[in-house]
Design brief:
Elements lengths: L2 H27 L6 H7 L4 H4 L6 H24 L5 H18 L1 H10 L2 H4 L4 H28 L7 H21 L10 H16 L3
Helix pairs in contact: 1-2, 1-4, 4-5, 4-6, 4-8, 5-6, 5-8, 5-10, 8-9, 9-10
Amino acid sequence: MGIYERKQREKEKRKREIIDAARKIFSNKGFNTATIEEIALEAELSPGTLYLYFKSKEELHTSLSIEILKYLADEIQKVVGQDISVEEKIEKFCDVFIEMYEYDSNILINLFHLQSGETLKNLSDEFLQQIKTHSIMAHGAMVDVIQEGIDQGAFIDEHPVALADILWSSYAGVVLWVDSKKLLNSQKDFVKSTLKTAFKIIIKGLKKE
């Protein structure tokens, strides 16, 4: 391994350590309360070194959201290739969505905020392109499954992109709305059960009579 390759590997390793530290601090303290100094301390770095990798706390938080979006897109694409019915694939999408929420609800919620129009305007071209790429992958996989169901005569003959939009917006809407209720009662978390109910209704609506 050459000097350049070794330096690149070390750089990626350090970046990974920063991201892991940031996830821990953000999850424990929340975005507004967490500081770069705390993240640097967790990563065993100086704040100055951390700034060599990420320009701000916002950029670091955005990196976590992009990471979870990439993983989500990968898992959704895996479902597409499974040898199961189209109805079962939609159910699997719901399982993936719940898994993402349970993995880190705070970062997932930030992702949904990032995908809103006004927030996107404030992102760098690099981050914006990454969000576009992984969003297209995730959304495209859902479109493929819905189109498959339409072609089989199992799903209603409506525009597959619109139906995929309904799937994704239902996911985001349930997470943002139901999760916000925890502010009133932290002991209650109905996101998982509500998502399952929502997808039962969606699948019923997708099926062709």
